[in-house]
TrEMBL record:
The gene is acs. It is an enzyme of class 6 (ligase). This is Acetate--CoA ligase. It comes from the Bacteria. GO terms for molecular function: acetate-CoA ligase activity. Its EC number is 6.2.1.1. Residues 66-456 form the AMP-dependent synthetase/ligase domain. It comes from Mucilaginibacter litoreus. Keywords: Acetylation, ATP-binding, Ligase, Nucleotide-binding.
């Protein structure tokens, strides 16, 4: 599945465009199927309907676990580094991971889980999170992982949308010096969620929790029951290639997160192939992905992609800056990491601590570096290249999305010449196009436009859970016969792609996607807020910060306190990741005569660029702009 030279890349790319079905069929043959497909691809972007490997039967965990047992049972699958460096790390070989997944799959069955059920997972970054995910896939249940930083309200919304019947969680989690409760957040969420019949709770932090009789059970007790039942195996459920594998919620430009749906066959092929090819993974290499499994990067490139390739994955529970900003480098040294995959926001944050924290760390095991989540600025790129890679590791800047399932535009390590700030070229099988506002394709090089994809790839989303029309509207209606990514993009003279950021109302804060409408809805819940408008502004570490313009009528009381109350409200409604960095109180928002907020103006003010606000004559009340300008933070 790996191309070995730039020439081979071009050949593979050309074949993938000219004969896509043959191309993907060859790739798919590298995986284990119970039954092969009747047809490689059927599609139209109108409905949209996309089906890959139709008629094929498989179980993804057979590919991620069982098939490695014959020759690689003792290869470490997961090396887990705890939050606290003085606590022992854990190693799970493929044999051990297989057994634990089977055990927990049986726990799920004992608790009534069946094929097709939706199971919510809200857990810390411990091996049991990966085990729970794989156990769902083993029995054909659909997992919906919710990142540990989301609030009770966000969890409840997701559980209700997917009608989950089981939730897997832990008592609490550790992040640096903080102990973060999880079970009590779930308890708050479940007040609104009658569909949940069972809560399975892992012990991690020993935080006191309330266990409700008949509903809540301990992970450890349930495992013991399975052990006494004496059947450690759990036969993998046979799935259709197009059966649902998981739902993962992501923010868009409307107020409500969408449940992006991925299916078994295409997702397996796509994540396995892209992992193997882009990182040029070699047997025995130690691969460290710093993402959380709660995001797509963790799904595709901690769990499924690497495991289907028999890779050894380092999974980290803690944060990059505790006990100090050298933690990543300690982990690299400790496990002799060969491939490090992280995010620009982490790089910028670690950069800001200076070079002292890197001094004396042995980073010589590193061979390849990766970046994901947002455009990487040149300064961070060079620092990563020089200080971490010592100029000898290619930087694989992977552009992709929750919806794409896997890497789309990315260098192939040691094959594609890299360029700072560029995701470089599309991987074989990916056909990007740039379009103008009217949907007209912009051809040639040295151009920029909105990034679309014109042909399906196996890892693409199939629908948004429970609302196919929304999927069509969001991704396939903007431009006819194209998948619209929501990103702006530049193609330089050489044909290299550089992603310039979102062109919709989605912010990218520390690599996390946050919809401005969602934050506004949360702010507007606060009792002293009439309305608000949220925009992004450049932030040194986070990439983008959240800037809120808030209309609050009576300036009664303490402004600073109201600010804190609003921040607390957003934390409660969405989660701490969406907290505004700046809140400016204003007497009104700049609106057109038809009542539309002119975000363009607010964006400029938030960016500190008030010299040229463009045409403000169509505003209902142009004076409000001067007031906002004067009060900008
Ligand atoms: C994988 C992931 C997707 C959005 C995407 C884009 C931004 C991700 C990027 C990048 C520039 C990269 N993005 N990787 N921008 N260069 N290498 O992050 O998925 O959370 O769904 O976010 O992130 O704006 O549209 P997701």
């Amino acid at each position: 599945m790996q191309v070995k030279s730039f020439e081979e890349y071009h050949q593979a790319y050309q074949q993938s465009v000219e004969q896509p079905e043959q191309f993907w069929e060859n790739i798919a043959n590298n995986f284990q199927w119970r039954k092969k497909w009747d047809k490689v691809l059927e599609w139209n972007f109108k409905e949209p309907k996309v089906e890959w490997f139709k008629g094929a039967k498989l179980n993804i965990t057979e590919n991620c676990l069982d098939r490695h047992l014959e020759n690689n049972a003792d290869t470490p699958a997961i090396i887990w580094e705890p939050n606290d460096p003085t606590e022992d790390h854990r190693v799970l070989t493929y044999r051990q991971l297989h057994d634990k997944v089977c055990q927990f799959a049986n726990v799920l069955k004992n608790n009534g889980a069946k094929k097709g059920d939706r199971i919510c997972i809200y857990m810390p970054m411990v091996p049991e999170l990966a085990i729970a995910v794989l156990a769902c896939a083993r029995i054909g249940a659909v997992h919906s992982v919710v990142f540990g930083g989301f609030s009770a309200q966000s969890i409840a919304d997701r559980i209700k949308d997917a009608e989950c019947n089981i939730i897997v969680t832990a008592d609490g989690s550790y992040r640096g010096t903080k102990e973060v409760p999880l079970k009590s957040v779930i308890d708050d969420a479940l007040v609104q969620c009658p569909s949940i019949k069972r809560v399975i709770v892992l012990t991690r932090s020993h935080t006191p929790v309330s266990m409700i009789k008949g509903r809540d059970v301990w992970w450890e007790d349930e495992i013991k029951k399975v052990e006494t039942q004496g059947n450690p195996e759990c036969e993998p459920e046979e799935m259709d290639a197009e059966d649902m594998l998981f739902i993962l919620y992501t923010s868009g430009s409307t107020g409500k997160p969408k449940g992006v749906v991925h299916t078994c066959g295409g997702y397996m092929v796509y994540t396995g192939y892209t992992f193997s090819n882009a990182f040029q993974y070699q047997p025995g290499e130690i691969y460290f992905c710093t993402a959380d499994i709660g995001w797509i990067t963790g799904h595709s490139y901690i769990a499924y992609g690497p495991l289907s390739q028999g890779a050894t994955v380092v999974m980290f529970e803690g944060i990059p800056t505790w006990p100090n900003a050298g933690r990543f480098w300690d982990i690299v040294e400790k496990f002799k990491v060969n491939i490090l995959y992280t995010a620009p926001t982490a790089i910028r944050s670690l950069m800001s601590f200076g070079d002292d924290v890197i001094k004396g760390k042995d980073l010589s095991s590193l061979r390849k570096l990766g970046s994901v989540g947002e455009p990487i600025n040149e300064e961070a790129w060079h620092w990563f290249d020089e200080k971490i890679g010592h100029g000898k590791c290619p930087i694989v800047d992977t552009w992709w999305q929750t919806e794409t399932g896997g890497f789309m535009i990315s260098p192939i390590a040691n094959v594609t010449p890299t360029k700072p700030g560029y995701a470089t070229l599309p991987l074989p099988g990916v056909q990007p196009v740039l379009v103008d506002e009217n949907g007209k394709e912009i051809e040639g090089n040295g151009v920029s436009g909105n990034l679309c994809i014109k042909f399906p790839w196996p890892g693409m989303l199939r629908t948004t859970y429970g609302d196919h029309e929304r999927c069509r509207q969001t991704y396939f209606a903007a431009y006819e016969n194209l998948y619209f990514t929501g990103d702006g993009c530049l193609r330089d003279e050489e044909g290299y792609y550089r992603i310039t950021g979102r062109v919709d109302d989605v912010l990218n804060v520390s690599g996390h996607r946050i919809g401005t409408a969602e934050v506004e809805n949360a702010i507007n819940m606060h009792s002293s807020v009439v309305e608000s408008a949220v925009v992004g502004y450049p932030h040194d570490i986070k990439g983008q910060g959240v800037y809120a313009f808030v209309v609050s009528p009576e300036k009664h009381g303490d402004e600073e306190l109201t600010r804190k109350d609003i921040i607390m409200t957003v934390s409660r409604i969405i989660g701490p990741i969406a907290k505004p960095d700046k809140i400016q109180f204003v007497s009104g928002l700049p609106k057109t005569r038809s009542g539309k907020i002119m975000r363009r103006i607010l964006r400029k003010i938030a960016e500190g660029d008030t010299s040229n606000l463009g045409d403000t004559s169509t505003l209902l009340d142009p004076a409000v702009v001067d007031e906002i300008k004067a009060g900008a933070m």
